[in-house]
Amino acid sequence: MSGxxxxxxxxxxxSSADAWVxxxxxxxxxxxxxxxxxxxxxxSLHREIKAQCAMRGSKIxxxxxxLLIQKYRKS
Length: 75
Fold this sequence. Notes:
It is a single chain. By secondary structure, this protein is mainly alpha-helical. It has helices spanning about 15-30, 45-55, 60-70. The N and C termini lie far apart (about 65 Å).
């Protein structure tokens, strides 16, 4: 062991921790609650979707959600 010291910073005070939680709770309240949707698709289609999402760096759930919004949310 080298005896190297690592500075972890100050210990948070109770009031700063409470403020952080309050800000986080406010952000969560602003989002609409989510519901889970489960569907069965052919394995070959899943592979295609997964590969294309990986190439774009996106998540399957985000892309499917966007498609459903485009189809069903009439703005």
